[in-house]
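Usage

Read records sequentially. Each one opens with the input sequence:
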Amino acid sequence: IPAIHQKLEADGTEKVEGSMTQKLENVLNRASNTADTLFQEVLGRKDKADSTRNALNVLQRFKFLFNLPLNIERNIQKGDYDVVINDYEKAKSLFGKTEVQVFKKYYAEVETRIEALRELLLDKLLETPSTLHDQKRYIRYLSDLHAPGDPAWQCIGAQHQWILQLMHNCKENYVKEQKGNSLLHSPMLDLDSDVRPSPISHLSQTASLKRGSSFQSGRDDAWRYKAPQQVVFIEKLTKLVVSQLPNFWKLWISYVNGSLFSETAEKSGQMERSKKNARQRQNDFKKMIQEVMNSLVKLIRGALLPFSLGEGELRQYGGWEMKSELSGQWLTHVIQTVRLSSESLTALEIPNDMLQIIQDLILDLRVRCVIVTLQHTAEDIKRLAEKEDWVVDNEGLTSLPSQFEQCIIRSLQSLKTVLDCKPGEASVFQQQKTQEDVCQLSIGIMQVFIDCLEQLGTKPDGDIDTAHLSVDVSSPDLFGSIHEDSSLSSEQRLLIALSNCRYLERHTFLNIAEHFEKHGFQGVEKITQVSMESLKELDQRLFEMYIEFKADPIVGSLEPGIYAGYFDWKDCLVPAGVRNYLKEALVNIIAVHAEVFTISRDLVPRVMSRVVEAVSEELSRLMQCVSSFSKNGALQARLEICALRDTVAIYLTPESNSSFKQALEALPQLSSGTDKKLLEELLNKFKSSMHLQLTCFQASSPAMMKT
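and closes with the structure output:
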């Protein structure tokens, strides 16, 4: 029993101990598991923290790249393109060749945004209008961003098309306005508010470019409302070209010399590439400039010289309503405008061969201005007849010759700036055809005035206004024939016209020839010769008309007077004196003298000589028609012939002397001294009795003029 008891106790102890051990192991296992669980969480959190810390370190270290896409967008919106380019260059150097996926992903985002920026900058570069400064800036940005192609050349091409479009739109809008439509107010055409105004300053002081100046500086805006539409258009067109072309030309020069890029080592390659491209594209750019110049010239020709364009060109560059051609005054203004434009473009150092087409246009405009001015001068001279006031000065002239000369002088003076050659310009008269045209027009002007004189001198009495007729107070008016009469006779008008003709031949035409020569006209000798011949022909026609008016009645009265009362040369009484018919003839001759003297004393010898010729010729004819004379008849005839001859002695010409000689030769010679004595007594008696009437034949007189 004790043994069993001991054994039982031992077994029980072992069981208890085994149970407790098992429990302890379980506890320990649970504790271990709990501890493991607790430490795993701690370790996990630590690993996570370490991972987070490492990620934060990576993010912190490479935050430039990770933030770059967003920063690029923000800087683009702000226009900080330099910052974007610098960041891109940095990112490209750091991550451009990375193999890390996350870096590759973010760098791809950067490239996407940079490509969008390239497109944006190219759009801005090609956008018009734009300043030269902005264009250069965008080109440099695109170059720094390694944009494909040649943005600088693309910009030059866009500017070229922009300028051409501006020019054609300008024409279309002014043509529409001329035709009655309102001018469309397009921002593209409103150069006055353009973001890059750089019109050329007035080159009378400087040929340099001055931003913001204007051709129209200081000019009243009302000028535009008075000027023809074509003139305003050309002002606008030339202003447009000289404001746009400088930047275009400077952009090309920058492209040629590589100054679009910084003078730094890393960009020297870009400069060399730019210079190489420019060399290859010189001909293309030259064609662009020539196209702009051609468009400018043809648009001006379409507005002012449409006949100088072909049919196809006229459709493209014309379209104006040509109701009437511009006056010489407006053409002169246009020439000055185009000249200023040419000088402005020359100041840009554009090669002369590119600008030659403008010089050709200026020459054609100058020639046309001369032609039009002379044509309008002829029209003005036609209207001088309406201004004839018939007021005669002490030289027997009206104001008409002076008005004619002044009209010519004003016309030539208005052409002075047109005829004067600016540097590089040819003479207006260099072409033979121009010389011939101007010569014919000049002759035409002179002929118009000659026709004007003829019209005034020969028009019917009822066609002339003589209400204001008068004679200069310094002109002797012995008979008051003009002052007292309220109308002007045909004979008086002829005399005034003859007096004017005389002055024109001796003074006015010669003065005008000097003015033509002074202004460089060619063929002045021909102009003068043809005009003088025409003037002399008119003078002779007018003179013959006056002589016919005055001499024919006197001549016609001789034969009836001689044979009045059945007078017969074969059966007549001893002469008692000069018969009345001759006295009446002399009184009529004296009346002619008075009329001529009242208007122009210089015409007296010419008129009187011709009247005397007519009378003496008729008297000679009548004497030669007599079959026979009695002694008394012969004495009577000799008395009357000698009385007339001696009375008009100072107006005798070879022709009248010959007539008197023939008349006397037709008479029988005086056979006795008694007859000669009687003849002398009767002649003295006649001269004494008519002393007062014959005074006009005794006064001193200028040398006689040949008829």
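Summary fields computed downstream for this record:
- The CA atoms of residues 131 and 196 lie 6 Å apart.
- The first strand starts at residue 391 and ends at 392.
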